[in-house]
Amino acid sequence: KILAKRSRKYGRLPMCLVIAPTRELAIQIQREFERIQPDVASTCVYGGVSIGMQVGAIRKGVDVVVGTPGRLIDHLVNATLDVSAVETFILDEADEMLKMGFQDDVEKIIEYLPPSKQTNLWSATMPAWVKDLAQKYCRDVVFFDMVGSDTTRTSITIEHIAIACGYDNHANSILRVVKKYGKGGRVLVFCRTKMEVDRLANFPSLKPMARVIHGDISQAQRERTLQDFRAGRFEVLVATDVAARGIDVPEVELVIQTSVPEDSNTFVH
């Protein structure tokens, strides 16, 4: 649809808006647009970097804008982004938007969009807010349920192993698990806190093979770390759950959670 209607006019307004809960996921989505259809002009807007280059890209004219809630609101409030021509609106990881406190921001952004848009809500789980959002802002709502009534369902291709381990033995145990189950591929380790991420990654036996991602790492460094991880320049990425939300690296062979997730939805994600 975008290809059929797009023009190369300077300053054209975007026809598609995508919201993602994290900067890493937003960047990843925008890169997929570039990979799948290079003729569709897209740009990504997110915090932690200068807004000036983003404004310049939007002014030139784009077909698709992908962004995080806070930075999108900055652009909308400052009138550097006009979404009046948007025909397709996509909210990715809708349940995580709620969990991360973006409910008000998302609804504020929706108010800027034309009523005639098509809305797509993607969510691994279906909390009440997502259903309410669909009923409030969508017409002729259609639900596609790929999970069914089993809300704890996971992929049948994934083997799950539980290992009892004391806190002080985490690093040594993770190293043994990586050697046994990593099979030479990428390994993603989830921790609850930034302090735990840094502690594990700096453990002498893990330090040579590990790097970290969490909220205190600069955006530029996070992007470099993810790029190197995808390229296989190091083996183990240690990250907080929020920072690594939605990261797609097909070469990941092993995922380790250092503690039992707070709820089943977190585990399913």
From TrEMBL:
Keywords of the record: ATP-binding, Helicase, Hydrolase, Nucleotide-binding
GO MF entry, a single one: hydrolase activity
PANTHER family reported for this sequence: ATP-DEPENDENT RNA HELICASE DBPA (PTHR47959:SF1), ATP-DEPENDENT RNA HELICASE RHLE-RELATED (PTHR47959)
Record bears the keyword tRNA processing: no
A single cellular component GO annotation: cytosol
Descriptive protein name: RNA helicase
Keyword Nucleotide-binding tagged: yes
SMART domains per the UniProt record, alphabetical: DEXDc (SM00487), HELICc (SM00490)
Occurrences of domain Helicase C-terminal (ranges): 173-269
Subcellular location, record wording: Plastid, Chloroplast
Sequence ranges assigned to domain Helicase ATP-binding in this UniProt record: 1-144
Pfam families to which the protein is assigned, alphabetical: DEAD, Helicase_C
InterPro entries: DEAD/DEAH_box_helicase_dom, DEAD/DEAH_RhlB, DEAD_box_RNA_helicase, Helicase_ATP-bd, Helicase_C-like, P-loop_NTPase, RNA-helicase_DEAD-box_CS
